[in-house]
Design brief:
By secondary structure, this protein is an alpha+beta fold. The protein is built from 15 helices and 22 strands. A hairpin with a 5-residue loop joins strand 9 and strand 10. The chain binds ligand MV4.
Length: 469
């Protein structure tokens, strides 16, 4: 298919009037493990699936396991997984009623969600307006303030110039952090420790934001030192009901890339969960949130918590929540998109789950990507072990996309048992042909600090990997 050219939207009746609520066919606008993850749930729900793929992914399992597959272009993401006209053409020719965007790529692209609507294709996720509001961090923050959700003290809006910034920082008190309103996930942030370095950092932040997002709007906040990153999973239906599905501890990350997530958080207490859960529900209710989403919080050592940002998509780490509450979150997403009501009840973890992200990276070479052919593979198995992956022995990991090749998730009754199980699972997880993050995870599981549960987002800054054995 040469894609590219579009013949205006085909006006179908809105799907709610046009047919039974049930989707007949879903196109998955993604690749890798998440594409496969969505296909699996669709099959269990009796929904046909359409995979899209780039020429680099012809041998990927998501292509094989879908009912149909459409090649949408060459390897570069902008020409394939981000190419909206080609994806819409694929949905049109296969007659898909809905599109699941997965995570990354177009999952938080409000224009894409809007175009789906114009084509009479249901975007499985929030409305374009909800994506836009949460995508702009200043708008998101002011929405949360109005909803009564605690936020980090800060400028409360865009800052016009250095002088205003310096004045505000004085009021807030150093250290402060500069963030880009179009940023998120750590991009375009700078910490400022004193007034002397304000102007330099300000200029750098502005230029970075302009270059990265084409938007140089920035704001400042009090810098919270040594925070934990704890997020609350929420779900909202089309009728305004919002519930929460408990927390995930996501403080184990390196350069803003999460490596390990777990639920419950070892720092959580029933009181804190109640408060953070209430705040997350208020956040969702404030925008009538439709779909599954995540409210990210910074939590300080006194268990004060502050709204950081909202992710309006399914996340990589949704699996740990699935394991501890025993629900399929992709199924929930699809049911919500089909117009089903949710019960409105909240969930608390009944088990402990940990996810280790297995990336094709050389941890001894600064986590440099290690694409190439997987010569042999033995994934972990056994009681309480789950592996979500699109790879197999003989598969070649292409160099064009992110390096995550598998998620290893263990579940047990207690955190201690879960760590023990993870150690066992990591030992039997063998990947030959490419380097992976498995050696990192093995060391982490033995680390006393990790095992104690007493860590924050800076933990990996001084984590000693030792030498390669
Ligand atoms: C902060 C912060 C401290 N104080 N904001 C990083 C990702 C982006 N979502 C916001 N981030 C942070 N915002 C204030 N006011 C520290 C971080 C931060 C961080 C947050 C979560 C997980 C890892 C992190 C690593 C470094 C900094």
């Amino acid at each position: 298919m040469d894609g590219g050219r579009l013949v205006g939207p085909v006006h179908r009746l809105s799907f709610a009037v046009n047919r039974e609520k049930m989707f007949d066919k879903v196109l998955i606008a993604n690749r890798g493990e998440i594409a496969l993850r969505v296909i699996r749930t669709c099959r269990e729900m009796g929904i046909k699936t359409v995979a899209i793929y780039s020429t680099a992914d012809a041998e990927s399992l998501h292509v094989r396991f879908a009912d149909e597959a459409v090649c949408v272009g060459p390897p570069a993401s902008k020409d394939s997984y981000l190419n909206i006209p080609r994806i819409m053409a694929a949905a049109e020719i296969t007659n898909a009623d809905a599109i699941h965007p997965g995570y990354g790529f177009l999952a938080e692209n409000a224009d894409f969600a809007e175009i789906c609507g114009e084509y009479g294709i249901k975007f499985i996720g929030p409305t374009p307006m909800q994506i836009r509001m949460m995508g702009d961090k200043i708008t998101a923050k002011s929405t949360m303030i109005n909803a009564g959700v605690p936020v980090v003290p800060g400028s409360g809006g865009l800052i016009a110039d250095v002088k205003e910034g310096i004045g505000l920082a004085k009021g807030i008190g150093y250290p402060v952090i500069i963030k880009a309103t179009a940023g998120g996930g750590g991009k375009g942030m700078r910490i400022i420790w004193d007034e002397a370095s304000f102007e330099g950092q300000w200029n750098m932040a502005r230029n970075e934001a302009k270059a990265a997002f084409g938007n140089d709007g920035i704001y400042i906040e009090k810098y919270i030192e040594e925070p934990r990153h704890i997020e609350i999973q929420i779900a909202g239906d089309q009728y305004g009901t919002v519930c929460h599905l408990s927390e995930r501890e996501c403080s184990i990350q390196r350069r803003h890339q999460k490596l390990v997530e777990e639920s419950p958080s070892p720092f959580m207490t029933p009181e804190l969960r109640q408060k953070m859960g209430d705040a997350a529900i208020k956040a969702g209710e404030a925008i009538n949130y439709e779909g599954v989403g995540t409210i990210e919080f910074l939590v300080d050592k006194y268990r004060n918590f502050y709204f950081m940002e909202m992710n309006t998509r399914i996340q990589v780490e949704h699996t740990v929540t699935e394991e501890v509450i025993d629900h399929d979150l992709i199924k929930e997403q699809i049911k919500i998109a089909m117009g089903e009501k949710i019960s409105g009840k909240n969930y608390i973890p009944e088990m402990h789950a940990i996810e280790c992200r297995i990336n094709a990276e050389d941890v001894y070479k600064d986590f440099r990507p290690s694409p190439g052919k997987i010569v042999s593979l033995h994934t972990a198995k056994g009681h309480g072990v789950r592996v979500d992956t699109h790879v197999y022995a003989g598969y070649t990991i292409p160099p064009y996309y992110d390096s995550m090749i598998a998620k290893l998730i263990c579940r047990a009754r207690t955190r201690e048992e879960c760590i023990t199980k993870m150690e066992r699972a990591l030992e039997e997880f063998i990947v030959e042909g490419v380097k992976t993050t498995i050696p990192f995870h093995k060391k982490l599981m033995k680390d006393e600090r990790f095992r104690s549960g007493n860590f924050h987002t800076g933990f990996l800054n001084d984590f000693d990997l030792g030498t390669e054995d």
